Amino acid sequence: MSIVFLNNEFMPMEEAKISPMDRGFLFGDGIYEVVPSYDGKLVGFGPHVARMQEGLSLIDIKLNWSTQQWRDVVEQLIEKNGAGNLGIYLHVSRGTDSKRYHAYPENVTPTVYAFTFEIPQAAVADKTKAKKYSVNSNTDLRWKRCHIKSTALLGNVMHFQQGHSAGCNETILFNDNDELTEASSCNAYIVKDGIIATPPLDHQILPGITRLILLDILAKDGSLTVEERIVTRKEVESADEIWLTSSSKEIAPVTILDGKPVGSGEIGDVWLAAQSLYSLGKYNY
Question: pTM for the complete prediction?
Fold first, then answer.
């Protein structure tokens, strides 16, 4: 039986209940995070909590929790749910109001919810064992504040469904200028002639924690060249390698784009080098 955390109490998931007047339910008015853990070891916990706190500030939800308070909840959830390979979902909504009204209500208490779910074992730097990803592409039709990790994810869900309906693992997105933004639930990268390129952070792109960790590891190692710059659709279509990153996928190699092979159609050597470095360094964050 899964144990969850809801408003300062641990309980079986079946007993967790919120009001239908909760603004998270009515408006998607909240912020969330997903933190991966492998055999009880967390990846990127500090940056995840910092991003959550930044998101809460941006939408003016006041929750004065310290990083240590979040860590205590997360570690207890991991222990109560048997450790192993778990994703920990953290969710804060604005809370429950007495009426449905668009303006932010005053004097409501935020709803805090957290639960765990099983995730695959940590990725290994092995071309023969890595999952190959197939993606399609589409015009990015989401809102203009994608840097906020909002619980209002319908735009992302619809784009993900486009890929799913086409038999793909993901959908990568381009803005109206045919510039790469990200995927529906991942950051995106290309490799050409050994050089890695990924779009710079702005309102079109979520500042992914796996992205943050990966770029920091690659910068410190120095053996691979990384450029944060505008990436065009033509560059994506002619790339030698395409990657996606997220907390649950780590560095995911894409071998099919819109039904056509990426590069040779096989997992590339630059992916192998990057995943090797990431696997060694990811627990330091």
Answer: 0.95
R_g of the chain computed on alpha carbons = 19
Check residue 213 and give left, alpha or beta (phi > 0: left; psi -120 to 50: alpha).
alpha
Q: Are 248 and 33 in contact (CB under 8 A)?
A: no
Q: Which of 131, 149, 249, 282 is catalytic?
A: 149
Residue 262's closest CA among 156, 172, 129, 201? 172
129 belongs to the catalytic site: no
Low-confidence residues of the chain: pLDDT under 70: none
pLDDT for res 1: 76
Which among 46, 63, 71 is positioned nearest to 112, based on CA atoms? 63
In the chain, what are the domains?
3-118 (3.30.470.10), 133-284 (3.20.10.10)
Backbone angles phi, psi at 88, to 5 degrees: -110, 115
